[in-house]
């Protein structure tokens, strides 16, 4: 049995589930996951999108194929004769065109895989069809439930989820944008609101971990839970005001083979790349890699 890996942006049905958000401030918009060439990878933008991908949304096979054909036809219109067009573009524009074309190809691959899976019966839905108007805390909690469901039906074993910061602030009746709160500086009122936001995120994260603890892992012959067999990373790539030093994160789950939990670990070397930690997590999950993204090594010393 292989461990699940959750980064808190699907082909068993999904090799990796990328959960995104259309408003640009959370589960997507600006992509959380990128290809090897640096191009953004498309993600599922709402609980309803995730529900349809996991359970088919109650659509017949014919309806599923029609929906996929409609999406394919849209992207056919976006195709560009790159060879002819590149001759008239500057170097910078050619690079932008290639990034655009790569993004379209990734979407086409996704649609192609979904078409192949149309002949495979969807698992029975474990939750009701989501409302399309959900926002903030209710939306996040539903996404957490579907992450748990995805693991339980083994639709995927790797999930990334960029949570909707702006939607959460709206549901908390905070009118400031996430960007404004990250630049609180010496403004005590903004600092207080930022603390309220951070507290709410930690409460939500705690509830997600509780879900994982209470959900049985059907692949575990010893009757363990999803939490027992998962590696969960929660955090981001920035601290405040675009600073990328001393970035905090939480590592949770029984799937970590080498990590001692319940401790505050600090990298012993200054400017240790965050990707070093991600490399170590992937190795801990069984990935046969020596480097990830811009890593300069591993972060084994954080594990002890």
Question: What would your notes on this structure say?
Answer:
This protein is α/β, with parallel strands linked by helices and 304 residues long. It has a domain at 4-58 and 134-255. It has helices at 47-55, 61-78, 82-86, 91-116, 137-152, 165-171, 178-182, 188-214, 274-284, and strands at 4-7, 17-19, 158-161, 230-235, 249-252. Helix 1 runs parallel beside helix 5 and helix 2 packs antiparallel against helix 4 (91-116). The protein starts with a strand and ends in a 20-residue tail after the last helix.
List keywords for this structure.
5 strands; five-stranded mixed beta sheet; 304 residues; alpha/beta; single chain
Shape: globular
Low-confidence stretches: 8-13, 24-29
Beta fraction of the residues? Answer: 5-15%
Order of helices and strands: EEHHHHHEHHHEEH
Q: If you average the pLDDT, what whole number results? A: 77
Structural class: alpha/beta
What is the count of β-strands? 5
Helical fraction equals 40-55%
Using the CA coordinates, give the radius of gyration.
20 Å
- The neighbouring-strand order within the major sheet is 2-3-1-4-5
Q: Separation of termini? A: 25 Å
Distinct helical segment count: 9
Report on the biggest sheet: 5 strands, mixed
């Amino acid at each position: 049995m292989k461990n699940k890996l959750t980064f808190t942006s699907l082909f068993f049905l999904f090799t990796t589930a990328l959960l995104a958000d259309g408003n640009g401030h959370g589960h997507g918009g600006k992509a959380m996951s990128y290809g090897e060439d640096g191009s953004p990878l498309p993600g599922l933008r709402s609980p309803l999108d995730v529900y349809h991908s996991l359970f088919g949304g109650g659509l017949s096979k014919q309806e599923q194929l029609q929906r996929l054909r409609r999406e394919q036809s849209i992207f056919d219109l976006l195709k560009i004769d790159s060879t002819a067009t590149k001759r008239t573009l500057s170097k910078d524009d050619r690079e932008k065109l290639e990034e655009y074309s790569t993004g379209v190809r990734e979407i086409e691959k996704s649609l192609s895989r979904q078409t192949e899976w149309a002949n495979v019966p969807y698992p029975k839905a474990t939750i009701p069809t989501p409302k399309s108007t959900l926002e903030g805390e209710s939306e996040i909690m539903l996404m957490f439930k579907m992450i748990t469901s995805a693991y339980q039906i083994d639709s995927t074993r790797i999930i990334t989820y960029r949570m909707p910061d702006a939607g959460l602030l709206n549901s908390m009746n905070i009118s400031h944008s996430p960007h404004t709160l990250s630049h609180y500086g010496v403004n005590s009122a903004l600092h207080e609101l930022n603390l309220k936001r951070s507290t709410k995120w930690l409460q939500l994260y705690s509830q997600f971990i509780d879900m994982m603890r209470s959900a049985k892992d059907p692949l575990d012959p010893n009757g363990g839970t999803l939490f027992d067999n998962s590696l969960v990373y929660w955090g981001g790539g920035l601290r405040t005001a675009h600073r990328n030093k001393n970035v905090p994160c939480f590592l949770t789950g029984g799937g970590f083979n080498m990590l001692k939990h319940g401790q505050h670990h600090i990298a012993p070397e200054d400017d240790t790349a965050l990707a070093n930690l991600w490399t170590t997590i992937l190795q801990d999950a069984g990935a046969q890699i020596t480097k990830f993204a811009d890593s300069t090594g591993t972060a084994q010393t954080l594990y002890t």
